[in-house]
Amino acid sequence: MKAKWGRGGVLAAVLVLLLAVATACGGPKADVSVFMMFPQNSPFNKQDEVKNALQAKIGEAPTVTVSISPMFEPQKMFVELAAGDHGVFVLPKEQFDGFKKEGGFVPLDDILKKEDFPSGVHDGQLVGIPLKDSKLLKDAGYKGEEIFAFVTQRVKDKEKAKQVLKVMAEK
């Protein structure tokens, strides 16, 4: 006995499949996205540990998602920066130093003291936070080279992004 699907049956099956995929990918979007890319010789991929620890320190709001690039890839870094989808970026010191000269970072002087983070100061403003001594990353097992966290001007909600960065900076 052969089943005849017909056009309507195939269309219905495709719609059910699309609906299933859409709802599986759905859900509420996080308030702040953190994108992390570590130096080539300091691989680190404990995305879930960092996200869970960060959300636990922050509390219920703002909600956070963390994306860690498994390897250092300059093209990916530029794409992520240009897209403007992330609230907080964490990049190797060399890349941070290059970008801070170009500007485009949100000043952090209102949430942290620049005297505590002199390597993150540019043109008299605190624009980046070194995270090598961050309790969050130490607890997750990061022992690599210096990395910096910063917020770009393109972020949708600067205050929430700064709130997340402040928690990340805790020693």
From TrEMBL:
PROSITE patterns: PROKAR_LIPOPROTEIN (PS51257). This is Extracellular solute-binding protein.
